[in-house]
Design a protein that fits this description.
Structural class: alpha/beta
CATH topology of the largest domain: Rossmann fold
Number of strands: 5
CATH architecture of the largest domain: 3-Layer(aba) Sandwich
Number of domains: 3
CATH superfamily of the largest domain: P-loop containing nucleotide triphosphate hydrolases
Radius of gyration: 25 Å
Bound molecules: zinc ion
Strand order of the largest sheet: 2-3-4-1-5
Helix content: 55-70%
Amino acid sequence: MRFSDIYGNEAVKQRLRAMVDDDHIPHALLLHGPTGTGKLAMARAFAQYLHCTDRHDGEPCGKCPNCLAHQSLNHADTYFVFPVIKQGTSDKYIAEWRDFLTRYRFESYQRWQAVLKSENAQPMIYVTESESIIHKMNLAAFTAPYKVMIIWLPEKMNEGCANKLLKIIEEPSSDSIFVLVSDDESKVLPTIYSRVQRVEMKPVPTPEVARYLEEAEAIDPDTAMALAAIAEGDIVAAEESLKLDSEQRDFFTQFVDLMRKAYSRDFKGLRQWSEKVSDYKREKCCRFLEASARLLRENFIFNVGDRSLCYLRPEEAKFSSRFAPFINERNVEAMAAELDSALRDIRGNANAKIVLFHFSLNIAKLIKA
Ligand SMILES: [Zn+2]
């Protein structure tokens, strides 16, 4: 992993590089910040930079034996600890872990749960892990001057484990470095938290999220920018919304269809529309209504406010340039209330076909207000 593989957070990269370059490395670091900022990738780039025997221009060389070992996730002096299930230790799940890191440059607890196929269990760092950590950190370094122990999500560590680690984190051997990577520093046990040097990662700037989507996912620049704006600095969220994109396109088509038929008071068409949308499963129907609420809100902003504040995809913006004037101060609140009420009824198991038809008739009334 190279620092340049991480989008944004240039100041953090600078700080970590300087620690290595000046040989001023704290024994325990805590990288913390929101999900989707690439904290784990940052920890890995830091470890690789530290171990590289030919680092230059602020990057690991990518070619020396240490770099090659890092890149294949087999570096002998780099250990990973992460939440697991069934009272296990990280070593037992190392194959899944490598799969996880290979598949995702940007990590999240949910993605890890999916790799572990444990969406219903809450992976944890159990007390048994502490013995393994202490054992490893007491070994002599194999190939590099420093051993690095990357602990992902220390906030998932149980108290028994944390207590056993206090001493080694406070007084590690001179060749040991702990890098803790946390999504929520406020949940890291205070005994651990007080012993680490904290480095905060910020949400990724929107243009950087867009650049990632263009480079890594081959998304066109306009769509990338629109998705990035919605993601609010979280690359995982941007990637997830990309996955949802085909559903969102379908929802957008239904939204446009509804508004056209409502505007032209095509009651027969509205009945057909409500039948079609009620064919969605209940959960999908709710997601459609939520997506419609967003479109309504964005169209209102498009109409009355600053267009640069609108988070619309290009095809949505094209539609809005003609449609937005029909969403105004006189009807926006009532329309939003209709959406809310339909959402509530459908969640409450009411007949979706009836609710949606009733809802579409009310929209037809309001759209000409
Ligand atoms: Zn190297």
